[in-house]
């Protein structure tokens, strides 16, 4: 090899001299990492935290399919199918519906970076970490951010929202439908209409709620809605769903300034997702394999039907809540009507450190639940009722093995696991 390069050097003259010197005189500073020379090791875990969820066999199989080009016509076909799936799960006819190549935060950032302009008034429901994040991004974009701060566990009434709208005259209101850090389900009825009366757009985070509880983007007057792939859809994290109403689109398309992000500029994204009727152009390389999995997650939900999925989550959550309370545990969200069916939060019992409970379950039972996040850290630990349409990974049969609903099992009575503080997990026998 070296000989060949020396010969090439002679033939090519001084132009190639530098290449040969580089190849010959430099030694590698960094050796191949030993850790990478061992096989990949991934533990078997039952993911009962607020997300990500275990993959369904179908989303997992989709992730093992061969790559095709992100601009091949077959890929565009798959993207079109995904778009229809998003319109179904969001219950929207918005043409500007697409998928972001990034996690839920990226969809939030895409919404804000496109809709907000510097100086815009932005009203934010901060009743947990997701409102904090929205406020943070809004500040970075130079918006005038008006947080409506509440303790974790709180939600917003129409009256409170109206006071905020009247006082701050925002162009945009942010609310979290499923506050996964506190377990609160924010009622959405009436909010769209109220916002529109005040010429304000309504932006809703449905990362933790989509597919698990009723949500009707168009009928509820939601202008911008986003969600993630890794929760009820049981697909890998890293892609997110986003849709804009015609009114939101008008605000974006009449901006005085370009959005500060090229990657998240909705005009470019609308093109690659076939929303603008123009030939699709290269913008960025989309995560082809993750999109296959997302397509399958959406397909599973479409086959099951939204209403069935909502019902199964409601029944599974009711069962879990009953069993937890029967064990003497207190649910963090007091009003049953405000409990998010996809994420159950349990108040940390006096005398226990939440970290010990979380570690015990993961180390002894291979089960993930988590502590709170942001303002709810240490106050409760979210976990979810069994993802009802999903066969979980095989877990070791130890005093903690989980009993779950096999695919297709009739759901009455709903056999979901209950998590006890002694670390055991039990449920009706299979
Ligand atoms: C309600 C909610 N919003 C936003 C996010 C952020 O999503 P990601 O972690 O995919 O960026 C999460 C993640 O758990 C969430 O639960």
TrEMBL record:
Biased composition (Low complexity): 397-430
Biological-process GO terms, alphabetical: glycine biosynthetic process, by transamination of glyoxylate; glyoxylate catabolic process; L-alanine catabolic process; L-cysteine catabolic process; L-serine metabolic process; Notch signaling pathway; oxalic acid secretion
InterPro entries: Aminotrans_V_dom, Aminotrans_V_PyrdxlP_BS, PyrdxlP-dep_Trfase, PyrdxlP-dep_Trfase_major, PyrdxlP-dep_Trfase_small
GO molecular function, one term: amino acid binding
Keywords from the named record: Aminotransferase, Pyridoxal phosphate, Transferase
Cofactor (UniProt): pyridoxal 5'-phosphate
GO CC annotations on file: peroxisomal matrix
Reaction(s) this enzyme catalyzes, per UniProt: L-serine + pyruvate = 3-hydroxypyruvate + L-alanine; glyoxylate + L-alanine = glycine + pyruvate
Enzyme class, first EC level, given as a word: transferase
Spans annotated as Disordered: 376-430
PROSITE patterns, sorted: AA_TRANSFER_CLASS_5
Matching Pfam families: Aminotran_5
Occurrences of domain Aminotransferase class V (ranges): 62-372
Family: Belongs to the class-V pyridoxal-phosphate-dependent aminotransferase family.
Name this protein carries in UniProt: Alanine--glyoxylate aminotransferase
Phylogenetic lineage: Eukaryota, Metazoa, Chordata, Craniata, Vertebrata
Recorded name of the encoding gene: AGXT
């Amino acid at each position: 090899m070296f000989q060949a390069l020396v010969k090439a050097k002679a033939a090519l003259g001084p132009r190639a001299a530098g290449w040969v010197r580089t190849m010959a005189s430099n030694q590698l500073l960094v050796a191949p990492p030993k850790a990478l020379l061992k096989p990949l090791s991934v533990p078997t875990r039952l993911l009962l935290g607020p997300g990500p969820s275990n993959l369904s066999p179908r989303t997992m199989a989709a992730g093992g399919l061969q790559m095709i080009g992100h601009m091949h016509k077959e890929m565009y076909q798959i993207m079109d199918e995904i778009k229809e799936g998003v319109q179904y799960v969001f219950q929207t006819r918005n043409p500007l519906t697409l998928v972001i190549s990034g996690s839920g935060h990226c969809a939030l950032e895409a919404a804000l970076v496109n809709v907000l302009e510097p100086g815009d008034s932005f009203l934010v429901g901060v009743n947990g970490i997701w409102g904090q994040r929205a406020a943070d991004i809004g500040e970075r974009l130079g918006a005038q951010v008006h947080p409506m701060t509440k303790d974790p566990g709180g939600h917003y009434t129409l009256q409170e929202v109206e006071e905020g709208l009247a006082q701050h005259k925002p162009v945009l209101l942010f609310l979290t439908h499923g506050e996964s850090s506190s377990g609160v389900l924010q009622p959405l009825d009436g909010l769209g209409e109220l916002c529109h009366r005040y010429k304000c757009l309504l932006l809703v985070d449905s990362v933790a709620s989509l597919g698990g509880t009723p949500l009707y983007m168009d009928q509820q007057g939601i202008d911008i809605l986003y969600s993630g792939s890794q929760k009820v859809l049981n697909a890998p994290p890293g892609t997110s769903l986003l849709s804009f109403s015609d009114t939101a689109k008008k605000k974006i398309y009449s901006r005085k300034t370009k959005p500060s992000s090229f990657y998240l500029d909705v005009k470019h994204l609308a093109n690659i997702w076939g929303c603008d009727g123009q030939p699709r152009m290269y913008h960025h390389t989309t995560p082809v394999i993750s999109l296959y999995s997302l397509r399958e997650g959406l397909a599973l939900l479409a086959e099951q039907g939204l209403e069935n999925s909502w019902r199964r989550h409601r029944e599974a959550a009711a069962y879990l809540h009953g069993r937890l309370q029967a064990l003497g545990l207190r649910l963090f969200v007091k009003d049953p009507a405000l409990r998010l069916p996809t994420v159950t939060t349990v108040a940390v019992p006096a005398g226990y450190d939440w970290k010990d409970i979380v570690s015990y379950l993961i180390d002894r039972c291979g089960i993930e639940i988590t502590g709170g996040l942001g303002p709810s850290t240490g106050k409760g630990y979210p976990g979810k009722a069994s993802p009802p349409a999903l066969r979980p990974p095989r877990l070791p049969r130890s005093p903690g093995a989980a009993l779950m609903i096999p695919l297709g099992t009739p759901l009455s009575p709903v056999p979901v696991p209950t998590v006890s503080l002694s670390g055991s997990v039990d449920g009706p026998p299979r």
